[in-house]
Design goal:
Length: about 260
């Protein structure tokens, strides 16, 4: 069983798109070590997005679009609430939304939900973070001091010793963001096993290839994918669906860092 945490250099960096692509790749492709080929096989993959903000109330439940997408690709018979147990309606920082509702978030609570996901005994459990690496969760609810201990989502990753994949949002400033995030992951004693260059924005970054080369040299981990922008309509005028885009992205991810 492998447990992977997906983080990124910032918010809106493509974590859900990449997570869905990874799940799709893992549920459909596995490396055959005997023939050294990729053969079709369905791995059991569970998804977990512990926290979301920006949800729609549907039949009395807060539904996050990212969690809904993950549920379409994971194959461990999970409900959207199983995938995303802590959800807030407002599209704001989760710890601020929690404070406004007087509903504390704790690492212990996240871990309780995570342990439920682990009981599914999936081949791979993929955990999608929120925001960047050091996402605040707010102070420990049990502490009423003037300077209570602050919690971060990265504390949950540390507590469970998850391997990390870093998504780099390829835009101006990404070199600094990527290096600082990688250094923070390593300082927390965790293993960052690979990074993905997300180039899916409609406007291509200036000197994109040079920046990818620079990051490849600066980050001492493998670049396992470069995901480029895919238009909603192809050259023949056919509509390209989200599932189509996920399929293309999945086929561009090197799964060898996961042993497949």
């Amino acid at each position: 069983m492998k447990n992977i945490f997906i983080t990124a250099t910032d918010t809106d960096a493509g974590k859900t798109f990449v997570s869905c692509a990874l799940v799709h790749a893992l549920t459909n492709l596995v490396h055959n070590t005997v023939t050294n080929t990729l053969a079709t096989k369905s791995l059991k993959v569970a998804a977990f997005k512990p926290i979301s903000a920006g949800c729609e109330l549907v039949a009395g439940e807060l539904i996050n679009e990212d969690a809904k997408l993950l549920s379409q690709f994971a194959n461990s018979n999970q409900s959207i609430t199983d995938i995303n147990p802590i959800a807030f309606a407002e599209p704001i920082a989760p710890h601020i939304a929690a404070k406004k509702q007087n509903r504390p978030i704790s690492v212990a609570e996240i871990n309780d939900h995570y342990q439920q996901v682990i009981t599914l005994n999936a081949d791979i459990t993929l955990v999608e973070g929120a925001g960047g690496w050091r996402l605040p969760l707010g102070p420990l609810a049990s502490q009423a001091t003037e300077s209570p201990s602050q919690q971060f989502l990265s504390d949950f990753v540390k507590a469970n010793n998850l391997e990390v994949i870093l998504i780099v949002n390829m835009k101006l400033g990404c070199l600094n963001h990527a290096l600082l995030t990688y250094q923070a992951i390593k300082a927390d004693g965790l293993e960052c096993i690979g990074w993905i260059a997300n180039c899916a924005a409609g406007e291509v970054m200036n000197n994109l290839s040079e920046n990818i080369v620079e990051l490849t040299q600066l980050l001492p981990i493998p670049n396992i994918a470069q995901l480029d922008f895919i238009d909603d309509v192809d050259e023949q005028g056919n509509v390209v669906t989200f599932a189509d885009k996920i399929n293309v992205a999945a086929n561009n991810i090197d799964l060898s860092v996961l042993g497949y």
